[in-house]
Specification:
Blueprint (H helix, E strand, L loop, with lengths): L15 H25 L7 H20 L5 H22 L4 H37 L5
Helix pairs in contact: 1-2, 1-3, 1-4, 2-3, 3-4
Length: 140
């Protein structure tokens, strides 16, 4: 008797805390970008719309996916947050006036990436346990 591994569904509550934490970090990162470029340090040489488009698009696409309950949206949000991690590190290093905001960006993007990884690992571990139970193999 063989079991189709794709037929095993992991309950939605597995990894819920990590998912909520990732959603919170994503929304906070979006709000931070708006505050940064609208109030703290508006762009001087590039139009504001371009800057907001460049900074928000990588965050808004996975945010829409999260709203639509797409299963891989949190993974993509964590992946895209690495762009903001690099941006925050370079701004914190190069521009002392925005160092505090840049460090907050680094922390939020790190939290988002870690929560996405935590969510994925929790769900994979739960799936593996369910699969091993289905085939009669003892779980480790």
């Amino acid at each position: 008797m063989s079991i189709d591994p794709y037929s095993i569904k992991v309950p939605d509550e597995v990894g819920r805390l990590a998912h909520r934490l990732g959603e919170w970090a994503l929304v906070s990162l979006i709000v931070l970008q708006l505050v940064w470029y609208l109030r703290v340090a508006p762009p001087q040489s590039i139009p504001l719309a371009w800057v907001l488009g460049i900074m928000l698009t990588p965050l808004l696409i996975p945010a829409i996916g999260l709203l639509l309950r797409r299963p891989k949206a949190l993974f993509w949000a964590g992946f895209m947050s690495m762009l903001h991690f690099m941006h925050g590190v370079s701004e914190a290093w190069a521009v002392p006036e925005v160092r505090t905001v840049a460090i907050i960006e680094v922390l939020l993007s790190t939290l988002l990436a870690c929560s996405a990884g935590w969510h994925g690992m929790a769900r994979r571990k739960a799936w593996r346990r369910l699969y091993n139970d289905a085939i009669g193999k003892p779980s480790v």
